[in-house]
Protein backbone atom coordinates (compact mmCIF):
# COMPACT_ATOMS: atom_id res chain seq x y z
CA UNK A 1 0.00 0.00 0.00
CA UNK A 2 2.80 2.45 0.86
CA UNK A 3 4.59 1.84 -2.44
CA UNK A 4 1.54 2.20 -4.68
CA UNK A 5 -0.41 4.83 -2.79
CA UNK A 6 2.40 7.32 -2.07
CA UNK A 7 5.17 8.63 -4.38
CA UNK A 8 7.84 6.49 -2.70
CA UNK A 9 10.63 4.36 -4.08
CA UNK A 10 11.22 0.77 -3.03
CA UNK A 11 14.13 1.88 -0.83
CA UNK A 12 11.97 4.59 0.77
CA UNK A 13 9.46 1.94 1.79
CA UNK A 14 12.28 -0.27 3.06
CA UNK A 15 13.47 2.57 5.33
CA UNK A 16 9.95 3.28 6.59
CA UNK A 17 9.41 -0.37 7.48
CA UNK A 18 12.81 -0.51 9.17
CA UNK A 19 11.78 2.44 11.37
CA UNK A 20 8.74 0.39 12.38
CA UNK A 21 10.86 -2.62 13.29
CA UNK A 22 10.29 -4.63 10.08
CA UNK A 23 13.58 -5.67 8.48
CA UNK A 24 13.05 -6.47 4.77
CA UNK A 25 14.97 -5.59 1.62
CA UNK A 26 13.62 -3.48 -1.22
CA UNK A 27 13.67 -6.56 -3.46
CA UNK A 28 11.22 -8.25 -1.06
CA UNK A 29 8.93 -5.24 -1.38
CA UNK A 30 9.23 -5.50 -5.17
CA UNK A 31 8.19 -9.14 -4.94
CA UNK A 32 5.18 -8.23 -2.76
CA UNK A 33 4.15 -5.57 -5.21
CA UNK A 34 4.41 -7.86 -8.25
CA UNK A 35 2.65 -10.74 -6.50
CA UNK A 36 -0.15 -9.09 -4.55
CA UNK A 37 -0.65 -5.65 -6.12
CA UNK A 38 -2.61 -6.87 -9.16
CA UNK A 39 -4.72 -9.19 -6.98
CA UNK A 40 -5.79 -6.40 -4.64
CA UNK A 41 -6.36 -3.99 -7.52
CA UNK A 42 -8.48 -6.53 -9.37
CA UNK A 43 -10.71 -7.08 -6.35
CA UNK A 44 -11.11 -3.33 -5.79
CA UNK A 45 -11.98 -2.76 -9.45
CA UNK A 46 -14.47 -5.62 -9.44
CA UNK A 47 -16.36 -4.14 -6.49
CA UNK A 48 -16.33 -0.62 -7.90
CA UNK A 49 -17.55 -1.74 -11.32
CA UNK A 50 -20.57 -3.33 -9.68
CA UNK A 51 -21.29 -0.06 -7.88
CA UNK A 52 -20.72 2.16 -10.91
CA UNK A 53 -22.98 0.09 -13.16
CA UNK A 54 -25.82 0.70 -10.70
CA UNK A 55 -25.68 4.45 -11.38
CA UNK A 56 -25.80 6.58 -14.50
CA UNK A 57 -22.36 7.15 -16.04
CA UNK A 58 -23.40 10.53 -17.32
CA UNK A 59 -20.01 12.03 -18.15
CA UNK A 60 -16.54 10.72 -18.99
CA UNK A 61 -13.39 12.76 -19.53
CA UNK A 62 -10.82 11.26 -21.91
CA UNK A 63 -7.24 12.40 -22.30
CA UNK A 64 -3.82 11.00 -23.11
CA UNK A 65 -0.52 11.40 -21.27
CA UNK A 66 2.87 11.47 -23.00
CA UNK A 67 5.15 8.86 -21.40
CA UNK A 68 8.70 7.96 -22.43
CA UNK A 69 9.81 4.34 -22.23
CA UNK A 70 13.53 3.87 -22.86
CA UNK A 71 13.60 7.25 -24.58
CA UNK A 72 10.72 6.41 -26.95
CA UNK A 73 7.50 8.36 -26.61
CA UNK A 74 4.33 6.40 -25.86
CA UNK A 75 0.78 7.39 -25.00
CA UNK A 76 -1.20 6.57 -21.88
CA UNK A 77 -4.93 6.89 -22.58
CA UNK A 78 -7.04 7.56 -19.49
CA UNK A 79 -10.79 7.72 -18.87
CA UNK A 80 -12.01 9.65 -15.82
CA UNK A 81 -15.59 10.03 -14.62
CA UNK A 82 -17.25 13.29 -13.56
CA UNK A 83 -16.02 12.83 -9.97
CA UNK A 84 -12.38 12.39 -10.97
CA UNK A 85 -12.24 8.62 -10.49
CA UNK A 86 -9.97 6.85 -12.96
CA UNK A 87 -11.98 4.29 -14.92
CA UNK A 88 -9.54 2.89 -17.44
CA UNK A 89 -5.87 3.24 -18.47
CA UNK A 90 -4.37 1.95 -21.69
CA UNK A 91 -0.81 2.28 -23.11
CA UNK A 92 -0.15 2.46 -26.87
CA UNK A 93 2.69 3.35 -29.20
CA UNK A 94 0.49 5.53 -31.40
CA UNK A 95 -2.23 8.11 -31.00
CA UNK A 96 -4.36 7.26 -34.04
CA UNK A 97 -7.94 6.13 -34.58
CA UNK A 98 -7.15 2.46 -34.04
CA UNK A 99 -5.69 3.12 -30.58
CA UNK A 100 -8.56 5.44 -29.60
CA UNK A 101 -11.14 2.92 -30.80
CA UNK A 102 -9.59 0.05 -28.86
CA UNK A 103 -9.41 2.20 -25.74
CA UNK A 104 -13.05 3.31 -26.01
CA UNK A 105 -14.34 -0.20 -26.60
CA UNK A 106 -12.34 -1.53 -23.66
CA UNK A 107 -13.74 1.12 -21.31
CA UNK A 108 -17.35 0.81 -22.53
CA UNK A 109 -17.29 -2.97 -22.32
CA UNK A 110 -16.36 -2.72 -18.65
CA UNK A 111 -18.36 0.30 -17.49
CA UNK A 112 -21.16 0.75 -20.02
CA UNK A 113 -21.92 3.73 -22.25
CA UNK A 114 -21.81 7.28 -20.84
CA UNK A 115 -24.20 10.05 -21.76
CA UNK A 116 -21.46 12.59 -22.51
CA UNK A 117 -17.79 12.10 -23.45
CA UNK A 118 -15.53 15.13 -22.99
CA UNK A 119 -12.29 15.13 -24.99
CA UNK A 120 -9.66 17.50 -26.30
CA UNK A 121 -9.27 18.50 -29.96
CA UNK A 122 -7.52 15.27 -30.97
CA UNK A 123 -9.19 14.03 -34.18
CA UNK A 124 -8.65 10.38 -33.28
CA UNK A 125 -11.49 10.60 -30.73
CA UNK A 126 -13.98 11.84 -33.28
CA UNK A 127 -12.94 9.23 -35.86
CA UNK A 128 -13.25 6.42 -33.29
CA UNK A 129 -16.66 7.63 -32.10
CA UNK A 130 -17.96 7.68 -35.66
CA UNK A 131 -17.13 3.98 -35.89
CA UNK A 132 -18.91 3.28 -32.59
CA UNK A 133 -21.83 5.52 -33.53
CA UNK A 134 -21.83 7.91 -30.57
CA UNK A 135 -20.21 11.00 -32.10
CA UNK A 136 -23.18 13.11 -30.95
CA UNK A 137 -22.11 12.49 -27.34
CA UNK A 138 -18.67 14.03 -27.79
CA UNK A 139 -18.01 17.43 -26.23
CA UNK A 140 -14.77 19.36 -26.54
CA UNK A 141 -13.67 22.85 -25.71
CA UNK A 142 -11.28 24.98 -23.73
CA UNK A 143 -11.16 24.10 -20.01
CA UNK A 144 -13.93 21.51 -20.35
CA UNK A 145 -11.46 18.68 -19.84
CA UNK A 146 -9.75 20.02 -16.71
CA UNK A 147 -11.07 17.05 -14.74
CA UNK A 148 -8.90 14.69 -16.78
CA UNK A 149 -5.91 17.04 -16.73
CA UNK A 150 -5.96 17.23 -12.93
CA UNK A 151 -6.25 13.46 -12.62
CA UNK A 152 -2.85 13.10 -14.32
CA UNK A 153 -1.02 14.70 -11.39
CA UNK A 154 -0.86 11.63 -9.06
CA UNK A 155 0.51 9.53 -11.91
CA UNK A 156 3.15 12.14 -12.74
CA UNK A 157 4.31 12.17 -9.12
CA UNK A 158 4.66 8.39 -9.19
CA UNK A 159 6.49 8.51 -12.52
CA UNK A 160 9.13 10.87 -11.11
CA UNK A 161 9.58 8.72 -8.00
CA UNK A 162 10.10 5.60 -10.14
CA UNK A 163 12.49 7.34 -12.58
CA UNK A 164 10.16 6.49 -15.45
CA UNK A 165 9.47 3.06 -16.95
CA UNK A 166 11.42 0.61 -19.07
CA UNK A 167 8.73 -1.59 -20.64
CA UNK A 168 5.17 -1.12 -21.89
CA UNK A 169 4.05 -4.16 -19.95
CA UNK A 170 5.37 -2.83 -16.63
CA UNK A 171 3.78 0.57 -17.27
CA UNK A 172 0.40 -0.96 -18.10
CA UNK A 173 0.55 -3.14 -15.02
CA UNK A 174 1.49 -0.29 -12.72
CA UNK A 175 -1.08 2.24 -13.96
CA UNK A 176 -3.86 -0.33 -13.58
CA UNK A 177 -2.90 -1.08 -9.98
CA UNK A 178 -2.15 2.55 -9.12
CA UNK A 179 -5.52 3.76 -10.45
CA UNK A 180 -7.46 1.20 -8.41
CA UNK A 181 -5.58 1.96 -5.18
CA UNK A 182 -5.81 5.72 -5.75
CA UNK A 183 -9.57 5.48 -6.33
CA UNK A 184 -9.96 3.41 -3.18
CA UNK A 185 -8.24 5.93 -0.90
CA UNK A 186 -9.20 9.15 -2.68
CA UNK A 187 -11.71 10.95 -0.43
CA UNK A 188 -11.64 14.49 -1.91
CA UNK A 189 -10.84 15.92 1.51
CA UNK A 190 -11.19 19.50 0.24
CA UNK A 191 -14.85 18.89 -0.66
CA UNK A 192 -16.04 17.23 2.54
CA UNK A 193 -16.17 18.05 6.21
CA UNK A 194 -13.38 16.81 8.46
CA UNK A 195 -15.61 14.40 10.37
CA UNK A 196 -16.91 12.80 7.16
CA UNK A 197 -13.41 12.57 5.71
CA UNK A 198 -12.11 10.75 8.79
CA UNK A 199 -14.96 8.23 8.68
CA UNK A 200 -14.45 7.55 4.97
CA UNK A 201 -10.69 7.21 5.41
CA UNK A 202 -11.15 4.72 8.25
CA UNK A 203 -13.65 2.72 6.20
CA UNK A 204 -11.28 2.62 3.21
CA UNK A 205 -8.40 1.40 5.36
CA UNK A 206 -10.58 -1.24 7.01
CA UNK A 207 -11.71 -2.50 3.60
CA UNK A 208 -8.08 -2.63 2.43
CA UNK A 209 -7.09 -4.68 5.47
CA UNK A 210 -9.97 -7.02 4.72
CA UNK A 211 -8.59 -7.55 1.20
CA UNK A 212 -5.12 -8.25 2.59
CA UNK A 213 -6.51 -10.72 5.14
CA UNK A 214 -8.44 -12.58 2.46
Automatic annotation (TrEMBL):
Pfam families associated with the record: DDE_Tnp_IS240
GO molecular function: DNA binding
Key words, A-Z: DNA recombination, DNA-binding, Transposition
SUPFAM superfamilies listed in its UniProt record: Ribonuclease H-like
GO biological process: DNA recombination; transposition
Domain named DDE: residues: 57-186
InterPro entries per record: DDE_dom (IPR032874), IS_Transposase (IPR052183), RNaseH-like_sf (IPR012337), RNaseH_sf (IPR036397), Transpos_IS6 (IPR047930)
Functional description taken from the UniProt entry: Involved in the transposition of the insertion sequence.
Protein name: Putative transposase
Amino acid sequence: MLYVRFPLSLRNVEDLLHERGIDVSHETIRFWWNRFGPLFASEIKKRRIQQLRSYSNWRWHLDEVFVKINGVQHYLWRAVDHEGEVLESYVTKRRDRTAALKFLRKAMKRYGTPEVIVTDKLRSYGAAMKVIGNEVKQKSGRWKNNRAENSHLPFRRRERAMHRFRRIRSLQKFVSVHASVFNHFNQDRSLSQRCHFKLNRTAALAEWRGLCAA
